[in-house]
Design brief:
4 copies of one chain form a homotetramer.
Chain A (H helix, E strand, L loop, with lengths): L7 H22 L2 H7 L6 H6 L2 H19 L12 H17 L7 H10 L6 H23 L5 H21 L5 H4 L3 H29 L5
The structure holds a DNA duplex (21 and 21 nucleotides).
DNA sequence: AATGAATGAGCCTTCATTCAT
DNA sequence: GATGAATGAAGGCTCATTCAT
């Protein structure tokens, strides 16, 4: 893990440092010297390796997201023919893990949220690349649960109900009530995914029941 | 007193301009000259009327929130003894209205979200003043629906499930799928509140059923 | 002492406030709103009554100096035919009084010193008007003590030796050693004038003796 | 290291420029662009090299004083066992030199005076470091001349009489009477130190004689 | 290739002064 | 005459970026 002359390691070092600092301070409040100092590198290195602060940010975002996806794949390793209920739970769990993770290069959750509220135009496509597949997967799970007779809006609404429940907790880590805040992360994720799954399955079922009788909304 | 030659209240004008710009760009990317130009005022006016950029921001936040609350009170005018189901629906509707509103001085949703992801220390107390009552109200509604035998975590989880579903849509206005994006706001709020209420009542009921049998979680 | 509508009192009020603030903070660090607030007047009054901050400063200087001269005339009320030794002592005492005074409108000392080190071009002539007569008087006293046979340089040197001794203490009020700092002003002036007179009379005598034998210097 | 393409040390250049400008205009009236233009540098360089205007000022003060002390050491190279009279003269001469010097980085006198009348809190300790030793030295010389039987006030008074005589001329360089103003600096210092030494030795002797009979004052 | 030095553009803020009443 | 509101000019400072090596 020593610095190599070829500059490869140096770049990775910068990326790591940038991820940490961006996640903590947000894009604007982060300065490039801040990043460079954290990476124990020189002031010019951000521009040298990444072209600009903004491009570095895009890179960070991409890496952070990929990393999170790899670490916590949306299906949590389940086989594709698993029951929809289990796949939903796996999905919820993986999303929560990503949102609440804060280990080495695991700031995807924070950065994601930051971006949602305070979008940086440059990286729109990255977000799309990262989020669209996730939403599609979610929608296919929901579809399985709802059956084929529902319209697309219903699908979207249900998918969003689930996703938003998960993402909401990404914001509030640290602002959770004391008894939850102090829980170890894995325990917290377990509890939350238990709750959200239970809550959402019932919600989806209710929607299904209601919609079935009026298949054509719109 | 406080009126200009052209009959416009300069301070109010600045507040409006600031609200718009802050909501669009966030605190850091907004410059005071930006605000002043938008308000067709001079560069010194922000400091003259508000003391500093930061104080203006606090003022904006406060005003935006008050405005939103006044326009869409959390109980939507219901009597306190209304059935919990109806109060829940009213709550959801009012919150959605606030999140999706974007008219005159109605950027509360955007600003709120921006703050959640990219907190500005200065206005913490304002946020607390604004959000805590809302959460309490939500929790009392949920409590009525769940009954008294549930533990606090359960209460919190359910309350958050509801709130997060609503807030999630604040992010995504304009990024909604085309068929929803083009809906008139009131129509969209109606559909969403219908969905979230249905979904959540079922979710809460399921949680109640499950929890009743194991009243002590922890 | 009530405010009159004719504006006369208001002007005096401003002058007094300005004197106090200028003496405490110096020209640059003083702001006109500072002065106006101290005078319980409006922001525009300095410019209205005096034209500009700078002109007010000149006015302050003039008033302060006149005031000091009136309160502590250089001859301390002695008859012109008093012995030169006594006139010297009176001169020293009056100068010290002016330097160490800090009562109502009595900041002449502070302002004088401030000006000496940090000259404000505008008021040069005022200073000349105020100081030249003083120097002349001092020189006439010294001349009497030295006799007529000394050259002008000697005269000047001696006069300055006396004046500088007095003025030096204007700087250091408050930075004097503790045992002196706590003395009541009149007591301090008495001690200092005693010392400076004794010291200077001997000094002048020595100069006289030395010079007499070499009447033509350089 | 620290050299520019044109071979000049930018930091030293700024220090020199700042010294000159500060000495001429005082702290407040000096602007950093003024300094930077004088140093033919860019607007950001003051902050780059010194952190802030204030820190630059402290640096200037320190340098100016050290420089003056090195150039004109208080003992003018005399052996410590030299007669007190000669040491007094050397002290006076060195102090006068410093006050009247105005060559390369030799504005110590001006800056010193400016500080005395218009103190800048930041550099209090620097002043103390610079002035206290000087005062102590002066007092030890005076003590030798007065003998051991005098009280501390007497010591202080005499020391101040000497110091103030010297410093007084720092103010008035250029405002001296014509015949003195045009003298070459070394000649002027010679004349003044001759005078002040003569004057002060006599003054001190007189004080000694008077005090000896009333050793305990106050 | 890689870096420390240096910079210019721009930001927030202050304040003497002016203006409309 | 007198004032509160309003402003333009300028100041110190930050920081992403460029330059010379």
């Amino acid at each position: 893990m020593g610095k190599r002359k070829d500059g490869l390691d140096r770049k990775a070092q910068l990326l790591e440092a940038a991820t940490k600092v961006f996640a903590r301070k947000g894009y604007d409040k982060t300065t490039v010297v801040d990043i460079c100092q954290t990476a124990k590198s020189n002031t010019a290195s951000v521009n040298y390796y990444f072209g600009s602060k903004e491009e570095l940010y895009a890179e960070v975002w991409k890496a952070a997201f990929q990393n999170a996806i790899e670490k916590y794949p949306p299906d949590m390793g389940l086989l594709p023919d698993t029951a929809a209920e289990d796949r939903l739970k796996a999905f919820i769990k993986s999303l929560l893990h990503r949102m609440l993770d804060s280990g080495e290069l695991g700031y995807a959750g924070q950065i994601l949220l930051m971006e949602m509220a305070n979008p940086t135009e440059t990286i729109d496509h990255i977000k799309r690349d990262a989020i669209d597949p996730m939403r599609k997967r979610m929608m296919s799970i929901v579809q399985q649960l709802l059956g084929n007779s529902v319209c697309e809006e219903t699908l979207i609404f249900c998918a969003m109900s689930v996703i938003h429940q998960c993402m909401g907790f990404g914001f509030r880590r640290g602002k959770l009530p004391p008894q939850l805040r102090e829980l170890e992360k894995n325990r917290l994720v377990d509890m939350l995914s238990e709750h959200i799954t239970l809550f959402s399955l019932a919600g989806i079922a209710a929607v299904k029941e209601t919609t079935v009788q009026t298949p054509q909304r719109a």
